[in-house]
């Protein structure tokens, strides 16, 4: 339905992706979350034919400690392989923005399920 709405020109505007991600075959679909330092966007990769989430983290306004924690998150995610943990796919840092690409879990987030 999202794709049909986009083709018809209705619904929310697609979030912009940097050219580096577009070159890797990613196509923006819609925003799925937003936080203090960035957003999470649903994307489709034309090459792998799979949906993923790109977590976009603005590093510019962060303290040094917060930047270090963001990089630790990437290091930890990249080493975790378990069926009950969201799969890390790749990470890129461009123009003071960290892009963490992860598996898309279409069942919603854990917080919603708990409530």
Characterization of this structure:
With 115 residues, this protein is an alpha+beta fold. 29% of the residues lie in helices and 35% in strands. The radius of gyration is 15 Å and the shape is globular. The mean pLDDT is 86.
Secondary-structure map:
Blueprint: H1 2-8, H2 19-23, E1 26-34, E2 38-45, E3 50-58, H3 64-79, E4 88-94, E5 97-103, H4 110-114
Antiparallel strand pairs: 1-2, 2-3, 3-5, 4-5
Instruction: Catalogue the unreliable spans.
Output: none
Give the fraction of residues assigned to helices.
25-40%
Instruction: Count up the helices.
Output: 4
Q: How would the global form be characterised? A: globular
Helix/strand order, N-terminal first: HHEEEHEEH
Radius of gyration: 15 Å
Strand line-up in the sheet with most strands: 1-2-3-5-4
Q: What's the short story on this structure?
A:
The chain has 115 residues and is an alpha+beta fold. 29% of the residues lie in helices and 35% in strands. The protein has a 5-stranded antiparallel beta sheet.
What descriptive keywords fit this protein?
alpha+beta, 4 helices, 115 residues, globular, five-stranded antiparallel beta sheet, 5 strands
